[in-house]
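Predict fold of Beta-ketoacyl synthase N-terminal-like domain-containing protein; 349 aa.
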Amino acid sequence: MAGNLAPIARLDVASRAAIEILRKENSSYASLDDSVLFALFASRNAIKEAGWKDDANFGVNVGSSRGATGLFEKYHEEFLRSNQSSTLSSPTTTLGNISSWIVQDLGATGPDISHSITCSTALHSILNGIAWLQSGLSDKFLVGGSEAPLTPFTIAQMKALKIYAAADTVAYPCQAMNWDKSRNSMFLGEGAGIACLEKGRTKNAQALITGIGYATETLTHNISISTDADCFQKSMKMALGNTDVKEVDAIVLHAPGTVKGDQAEFNAIKQVFGKHIPAMTTNKWKIGHTFGASGILSLELAMLMMKHQEFIPVPFVKNIAIPKKLNKIIVNAVGFGGNAVSILVELPS
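Predicted 3D structure, encoded as tokens:
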């Protein structure tokens, strides 16, 4: 849909109604930013599905690229008008709000961490969770990302970078993975994604993380990565480890819809996979770019495709060879600063 003459992707009506019910559930929740409420709602559903509801012994690492964007703009506008700050302006806009409120809501007894690593935030949460599990300090970790960036100033910032989709584009404003596009086409969406990580193999596991990779490259520009995305090449190779590239069935690209960003990631994939490029897809043409939550929502797409053994193509990208099986999928994310993360997931055996 279009808002302020810009394409955006809001939560659906049912999800928005559920968030408003949650907001009214507790008087303390009325003053929280949407980014926090999105994370609370998704976390409740995640632990229920994982069977953690009666177990409080888990850690939490849920991050956000921007954090309490809506409240920041609200309180700053109030300050400009009155030269005073509201009492709750500081505690409700700290980034630690997200994981702290999840811990409060769920009664978790493990460590809670919030962070921002721009658009790779959610996948970095997975890296952190795995590190805690591998250290032996925790057996369970709740990880993910949440973002509510559909505010005037945030959209204006993206427009100022000349990367936002045109408002006059009716069908598919985001042309992610359209290698022939001549203009940038990123647009913003909102949402949250949460995953429950456990050490070892469990009977109800929906997927196994069998490889993780990360890299940061030296930037020549504040918002762009190198032509061949050196960071993605390194992160994908690290995630693959000893896995033969022929075994990877698909890749869920970060692909924000920008001309240079999409092409750089594709160049990196060609460098790593050579003649054996897996089927490629992304979800940003449908749900927009959700900044810090985007990586976990891409992971969700990968898991759903494996679960239902159905590859979801990008509708305007032609000549994609549909894989006969979906057992191993790589998920990519990168953000301002060149911080790339790649996660290799597999179907439980």
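The chain has two domains: 2-198, 208-346.
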